[in-house]
Every structure is written in C-alpha cells, then in structure tokens.
Amino acid sequence: MTTRKLRLALLQMHVEAGHPNENFRKLAELLEQAVDVQDKPDVIVFPEMWNTGYALERIGEIADLDGERTKAMLSAFSRKHGVQIVGGSVAEKRADGVYNTIYVFDEKGELQSDYSKIHLFRLMEEEKHLTAGNAIGTLDVAGEKAGMMICYDIRFPELARRLALSGAKLLFVPAQWPNPRLHHWRTLLTARAIENQMYVIACNRCGTSGETSFFGHSMVIDPWGEIIAEADDTETIISVEIDLALVDEVRGRIPVFEDRRPTLY
Ligand SMILES: O=C(O)CCC(=O)C(=O)O
After folding, report:
1. Mutate to test the pocket of ligand 1, among 89, 90, 121 (most ligand atoms within 8 A of CB)
2. What percentage of the chain has pLDDT greater than the value 90?
3. DSSP-derived secondary structure for 83-133
4. Averaged over 52-74, what is the pLDDT?
5. Pocket residues for ligand 1 (CB within 6 Å)?
6. pTM of the shown model
7. How confident is the model at residue 1 (pLDDT cuts 50, 70, 90)?
8. How would you list the strands of the sheet with 144-148, edge to edge?
C-alpha cells in the first residue's frame, strides 16, 4: 500500500457564549499555537459555533454579518501559513436569517466551499433562532473528496452515506456536543466511520456555558473504526497524522460499497 500522509490539527476550545471578540481572540491564539510546532498541520479544524456559542436569544445581534469577519481572519491565516482550514462553524447572519456555517479555506487563502447545518437541534431550540441549510457540503483535501456534517447531523446516517457515495473518503464534524451524551458521541462517530469506511475527524468544544457542560473528546477515527486520537475534556490541540491510502485498503478488504443492495432498500 502506497502511503498518502496528511497531518491534522483539531483545536478543542472553550467558547464564551455571547462574546465573539473573546472567541476571535482565543481562536487566533490557538491557531498560532497549532502552526508553531515542528510537525506543521496540513489541515486545521475547530468546533461548531465558535464565534458566538449558543447565545441564541441574541444571535441576530451577534452573528457575523455574511461571515465577513470570519472569512477575513481565516483567509489571511491560511494564506500566511499555507494551511487548509475547515473553519469549525460560525453563526452567520444573512438577509433571510442566521445560519450555522462552515467555511473552508485552501492553503492559498481562497474560500473553497461552505456548508450550513441542515438538521437543526430542537432539544436546544435551534429551529426557533437559526435557519437550516439546504445543501450537502463537500471539499477537496489533498486531491480527495471529503464531506462535512455539523454536530446533530451525525444522527442521520443517510447523510454520511450520501457523502460517501458521492466519493468522500473523510468526514469533518465540528460540534458543540454536551454532557451527558458522550456515549452517543463516540458511538455515532465510530459507526459513521465503520459503515462508510472513511476517516471521521470530529472537533468538539469543552468548558461550560450556563447550565450546559461540554465534554470535549474531539477525536479522529480511521476507516477501520479505530479511534487514533482522542482529547480529554480540557482545552487542547490534537495533532495526528492520517494515511489516506487506508481508506481504499479497508474498502478493498470488506467491499461494503460493492455489496450494497439499493434496489431492496
Ligand atoms: O444530538 C445531540 O445529542 C447533540 C446535538 C447538538 O448539541 C447540536 O447539534 O448542537
């Protein structure tokens, strides 16, 4: 098997709900730490709604207008350091509502793609304050296709399968997944990796916001379902190397995609 290595950095951060300036400052600090290392990352990922947190009552006031502040920061950083960024997600204010959106920048600082969360989480009343996206999201990573899902999206296996069928070999999952559902988080992420024989790269937040605490446990799972890196519940950066060749190797070993019977189900 010819190896095709790629280094990832996952910035597991605390998010200060309702304080975008503080969160931009924190993210800038973590980004500098992520590249100030010997093994520089090729791709950097962060959590969901890192700019505002879940200050949903005020989200219309504090969301980033057309994502301009976020895009300016991420574009400049990716260009300066020659690194690809899967920019977590931010609350993004558009003319027709506030979206929960991931921006992807390539290593030249160009906006490569975006994705807005399509399943809004009713347990946190997202549907009252946010507008759902209407399209699936993909990006190119080192010449391979990858998909994007945000937090609650991972409860919908059809979406991950659709991304895999469209050619995705990696899945990026920014999240703000709280206690007490660590078991769901680990199990669902692992299942998405095993059933689609793809890398799952999931970046959660940590810390507390009001009554809600977040367990962190950002993780990278390989296409065989092994958790190859996992954080604890503190603010930290996971740095891990993956081998894209493993996807084809696993898909060759158990040919799930060839054995599907879509005419029956
Ligand atoms: O599905 C879950 O348990 C958590 C989802 C969530 O917190 C979110 O989508 O923001």
Report:
1. 121
2. 99
3. -EEE---EEEEETTEEEEEEEEE-TTS-EEEEEE-SS--GGGTHHHH----
4. 98
5. 121, 124, 151-152, 155, 176-178, 181, 184
6. 0.97
7. low
8. 137-141, 144-148, 168-174, 199-203, 219-221, 227-230
Give the integer Cα–Cα distance in Å for 117 and 105: 18
Q: State the burial class of residue 123 (Cβ atoms within 10 Å of its Cβ: 0-12, 13-18, 19+).
A: exposed
CATH fourth-level superfamily of 5-252: Carbon-nitrogen hydrolase (3.60.110.10)
- In the chain, domain spans: 5-252
Q: What is the pLDDT averaged over residues 119-147? A: 97
Task: List Cα–Cα distances, 32 to 20, 119, 144, 160, in angstroms.
Answer: 18, 32, 27, 32
Tokens of 91: 């609350």
| ipTM higher than the 0.90 cut | yes
